[in-house]
Write a structure and sequence with these properties.
Order of helices and strands: HEEHEEEEEEEEEEEEE
Distance between the termini: 37 Å
Structural class: mainly beta
């Protein structure tokens, strides 16, 4: 079961991963960050670095407006990319799925009232489910630093729902997934709701060691918690509510050598979908599931 869960986590994240990389035509490197985002603090904080000193804020969104800030986020749409969401969902740019209100971002996966045609550039398919993903692709990227989210997962313990806070390479410098890497800061599965899972994916990973299985988060679906990764050239340290729950050092398959592939700029991704494999949809799975994000902060 341990191995099965890990492999499913890989597949779930990967299905969402491909979702944003080709979202839209755009720059292949990060655009300049606004002056407001380069102030010393994010939310008044400058966390300590593992090796000493303090981080400096490079990106922050507190979702204080009435709509998604399109200067910071790109919305994934199957109609643009042709990529379907996990659970045979359709990624859409719709206020029923992506909403900013009361200082929070709400991402919702929905079972719609009727089957509809999800259109895409590579073909169409019929489905009754929509999903939500937003990312900073082409707008903000960073190599190394602290990436943190304050979020509340969907409030259900019935399998079939999947949420993810993660990072993905801006360019596939070392080839397609998993060669160029993936960093899952926090993946949550409603079929195993008491834990939240951090993972590091790359060619040559030992799948029994690259996911953290000992990260219980009490009330993940009823309370906000902080999910962070501190990424350096030699290791990744995952912290939930400022407590370290998992650390990973990677050795990729030849011809890559550390710190490859994690020496390139990655962008931030937030995803809410239905589940797959061992966490697949059942007749009891809720028809809607919402992840609420209070803020996203990045330091370097």
């Amino acid at each position: 079961m341990l191995r099965l869960r890990l492999l499913c986590a890989v597949g779930a994240a990967t299905a969402a991963v491909a979702a944003l990389a080709p979202v839209t035509a755009g720059p292949t490197s990060a655009a300049p960050v606004s002056a407001a985002a380069t102030t010393a603090t994010c939310g008044g904080e400058r966390p300590m670095k593992p090796g000493g000193g303090r981080y400096k804020c490079t990106f922050e969104d507190n979702f204080n407006g009435s709509e998604l800030d399109r200067s910071k986020w790109v919305v994934q749409e199957t109609a643009v990319t042709g990529i379907s969401a996990l659970g045979k969902g359709c990624y859409v740019d719709d206020p029923d799925n992506i909403k900013v209100a009361a200082g929070q971002l709400f991402l919702t996966a929905r079972k719609e009232d009727a089957v509809f045609t999800c259109k895409g550039p590579f073909g169409s398919y019929n489905t009754e489910r929509t999903a939500a993903t937003v990312g900073t692709y082409g707008l903000f990227t960073q190599t190394y630093g602290r990436f943190e989210f304050r979020a509340k997962m969907p409030n259900t313990a019935i399998q079939g729902i999947h949420s993810a806070l993660w990072l993905y390479p801006q360019k596939h410098t070392y080839g397609g997934w998993p060669n160029s890497g993936e960093i899952d800061v926090a993946e949550w599965f409603s079929g195993a709701p008491k834990n939240v899972y951090p993972s590091v994916h790359y060619a040559g990973e030992n799948v029994l060691l690259s996911t953290g299985y000992n990260c219980p988060v009490a009330g993940a679906g009823t309370q906000f918690h902080r999910y962070a990764v501190e990424w350096t050239p030699t290791s990744m340290r995952f912290l939930y509510d400022n407590r370290v729950c998992f650390t990973h050092r990677w050795t990729p398959s030849a011809p890559l050598t550390p710190p490859q592939p994690f020496d390139q700029p990655f962008y931030v991704v937030l995803t809410q979908v239905f589940g797959g494999s061992w966490n697949s949809i059942t007749p009891q799975t809720p028809t809607t599931a919402t992840m609420a994000v209070d803020w996203v902060r990045v330091w370097q």
